Structure formats: C-alpha cells, structure tokens
Amino acid sequence: MTTVQMLSDDELNRAWWKEAVVYQIYPRSFNDSDGDGIGDLRGTIERLDYVADLGVDVIWLNPVYDSPQKDNGYDISDYQAIYGEFGTMADWEALLAEVHDRDMRLVMDLVVNHTSDQHEWFQKSRQRDPEYEDYYIWRDGGTDEHGNRTPPNNWESFFGGSAWEYDAERGEYFLHLYDTSQPDLNWRNDAVRRDIFDTIEWWLEKGIDGFRMDVINLLSKVKGLPDGDPDSEWIGAEHFIDGPAMLSYLEAMDEEVLSDYDVMTVGEMPQLTVESAREYAGADGPLDMAFHFQHTKLDYDDGERWSVGDWSLPELKRLTDRWQNGLAADGWNTLYWENHDQPRSVSRYGDPENYRRESAKLLGTFILTLRGTPYIYQGQELGMTNADWETMDDLRDVDAINHARELLDRDGVEDYDDVKDIVGYRTRDNARTPMQWDDSHNAGFTDGDPWIQVNSNYEAVNAADQRADEDSVYSYYRRLIQLRSDRDVLVYGDYMGLLPDHESVFAYTRSLATEDRTERMLVVLHFDGDTETVDLPVDYVDATLVESNYDHDDADPGTVTLAPYEARVYELFD
Ligand code: GLC
C-alpha cells in the first residue's frame, strides 16, 4: 500500500486553469465562412459547438490582430484591430460572447517581443520621430576589410540568417530575433512597457480570460549586446533568453495589470528549465504556467532542428520525471505534444501508417493523465498527420522556406528533392493544413481555394466520421477529457514514474488523498508496434480498467501483455 499525504481542500490550491483542458484554434486553418480560402472568425463561431462537445474548457486563439501575415499573425501591425480577412472587431466580440455562452473561456495570444515592421511605431521609429525613436533596438554596424557593412553582433534569427537588418531609411541596423519583418521592441524603454501594458489592459477590459504569451522570456537583452557563443544552438541566446530584467518586466506586468483580473497566463519560453519555470510561474511568480520545449527536441538529430532523428522513450521518461517532480511542490506544468509550430505528434512519436488510431489515442492518454494543464491543438483529437510537401511551392511557412533555402545552399545538395524529407518532416505547415471536418471537397474547410493544401488523407481522417464512431480518436479524447474533469486525482494527484529504463513501456501512477477520498490511478503506455509483456511494480488489492484503446476483459494490472501502441488507465484500490 502506498502512503500519500492527506490534503485538505485548501491545500489542493485549486484553480480553474489547473482543472481546465485547453483547445488551441489556429483560425486561418480552422474554418472559412466566406469562401476566400482563409479561415476566419465567423467560421470559427460556426464550429464552436464541435469544440464545446469535445468537453474542453478554454480556447486559446492564435493571433487575430491586424497584420501583414508574414508570420501568420505573429507580426502585428495594430494590437487593437482585427485582421480584415479574419473579420471585424464585431465578429471577434461575437466570438467571445459565443464562447462564454457555451461555458468556455477565451485566451488570446500576446505577441510583444516584436511587432510587424508595418506597425506605426516602427514606421515612426525608422523616421526618428522623437517619441518613437527608441521603441526598437537600433545599432550601428561595422565594416569588413572590403568595406562591406557588417551587423552589430553575431546573433542569429530563429528563422535563419543574421538577427540584424540594415534599414536604409534610418541608416542603422535593427534587431529581429525572428523574421526581418518582425523587429524586436526595446523593452528598456519605459514608454514601450507602458504602451504594452495599456494594450493588455484594453483586451482584459473586453472580457477575455487570459493570455498565451509569445516567446515571452526573450524581452530582456543583455546590455552592450555582446557576441554569442558561435557553437550554440541559437547564437546569442545566452544574451537574450531569460535576460537580466526579464523577471522584473513580468512582475511589473502582473502587478500593474494582470493581477486585477481573474485570468490565466501561460508563457511560451524557449530553453526553459524547471528552475526558471519556478521563478516565472511558481507560487510567487508573475505567470501561472509556461511552455517548455524539451520534449519537442527528442527527435532532433545531434541537437539540430532541421533533421529527422530517432527518439528514445527512456529520455522522454527522464524529462517527464524532471518536470512532474520538479514542479510538484511549486509551479504548474503545461502538457502538450502539438501546437501551430510543431509537426503532428502521430507522425513523430506514433505510427501514422500502421497504427494511426492506436498511437493517436496513446499520445492523448499521456497529456490527459499527467499533472498540469493539457493543451490540445486542433485536429490532434482526430489523429491528424503530417502532410506531403512535394515541392517548395507547397510550403507556406516563412521558417521552413528560409531554412529550406539554407539547406539548398549546402555542399552536395542539388535540389529540393534532396532536402524534402527533412523539410517535409519539420515544417510548421504540417500543423497548419486545414482542419478536416468531413469527406467533402477541401475537407469541409472552404468552398474556395485553400491558402495551404489540404492533407490528402481527409477522406479517411475527419471529424464527421469520428463523431459518429465510438472507437474513433475523437471519441476517445472526449471520454478522457470527461474522465479528467470527473477525477481530481488526474488533476492534482502526485505523479510517480515507474520502469524508468524500459525501452517501450511508459507507466506511472497518480495518487491523491483528500478528506473525501483516496484515489489512485495507473497509466500504462506502450510506445511500440509490437507486443510486449511487462511486470508492473504496483501494489493493489483490486483494480478496474477505466479506459483503454483496446477492448479487454482482463483487468489485472500485475503482469500485462500489451498490444501495439496500447494505452491503459486503471484505477487501483488498496
Ligand atoms: C512563437 C510562435 C511562432 C512565431 C514566433 C515568433 O514561437 O509560436 O509561431 O513564429 O513565436 O513570433
């Protein structure tokens, strides 16, 4: 019998955002209501019943602000206006009301490390308008021995190439950690911080329920902008990730604005560690939780993102233990496989050809039974897969296009066919193919020409079929979301990892003792396409199989024989 510390209801530290399951909508690819091939807000409203039926509590909406769409809305030209092709402010207000009517909440994206170069602030800054002159990070460059201009330091853009662009109008370089069209704001400037805090307040006053904060630990850059280590994964990162003023900027944001509202905040934080997660999002930290990226790098070959590598299950266990245990007493995890930046999880960690349905359910079991807030990305609940990217022309993602060009410049690379496997596997376009609603033309996404190709498997993988099928990935997700909402143990329970070195079976228990009841669950996940018999090191007197992606009569979790990509969730009784 395991002893679990008895907790009072107070000690659970309940919060609605801990008990929530979040569903992420990428509006451009969700549903098009007007036939222009681009998803929009009215289209999103048309599909809200689908989202509510799934049983989720919160919708995170990717950026819908006015933008030239160089990086699909992460390049904002006006923080207080809606991008015309998505609709109007009235459409957005209708969306908020419709979300609230269905007892769900709406979280907006907050993109304040950079703006678009079309933002009025940048236009005025490049003209040295005294009020805006210092809104961005401008520097003189140098010259090389041939008299050519050189950038102020060796920092790299995440999308490839130098992080500096020379602006002829102003006669200086500006910093852009992402695309050249996304200049970084100068957070040292009090006026920038004031303007951003005002913007945040403006949206909160409209009644939204929180923010997902884009690359939020990049705001503070080290003074003097020194060169970075040329061998690091992202050159310069040690000088712009978790910079010296980072925590104080977020604390000010929290004190001055966020703390006046009952909202959730989740920071997207490249290179986040457990220690810094506790500082940013522990009990005393300014945010509620943060996204780390450690598991999204498991399939990098030799630390390189533009590669297709093997991944190891013991490594996933080590990092899951690290995060589950590291934030057990202080902090709160985010649980995700997919988002608009990640390829489809079945194509990375499952088997899209032979066991698509089984492996999609297995991956869903993982994020819905760990401690933290689960985030489901549109289509993940259908087991959508990566698409084929046959030619460069099919690509839409600025990141993939830039990196494909870099790969094409390498020695020995002839043409796109030589890099197609890597680019096709890694491109963010995989997440951005239209949502597969049904088996009609364009998967029911649009009557027009879709802005990006529809995945060719939409006749076999779509929401209409899956909603009518109890055995579908969708129905399985729906049941597990319900189970999680019914069971405090799945939200607040202690985590204990089992079988740390097993190559293909991941198992863990969740345990919770409150004044009302003691609950214990066991989750067993077989990450492989063969059959595996394993002894599970758990004590119990009785057990019930609560959920599985296979049919079973046998409910004994002692020695189990697991089918390909089998997932089981047991309740254990002492
Ligand atoms: C974040 C977003 C990504 C965007 C980048 C720059 O990583 O999720 O889509 O390209 O920030 O804003």
From TrEMBL:
GO annotation, biological process: oligosaccharide catabolic process
Annotated GO MF terms: alpha-amylase activity
Transmembrane helix among keywords: no
Domain Glycosyl hydrolase family 13 catalytic positions: 24-432
InterPro entries, A to Z: GH, GH13_cat_dom, Glyco_hydro_b, O16G_dom_2
Record's keyword terms, sorted: Glycoprotein, Glycosidase, Hydrolase
Cited SUPFAM superfamilies: (Trans)glycosidases, Glycosyl hydrolase domain
Family: Belongs to the glycosyl hydrolase 13 family.
Protein name: Oligo-1,6-glucosidase
Lineage, opening ranks: Archaea, Methanobacteriati, Methanobacteriota, Stenosarchaea group, Halobacteria
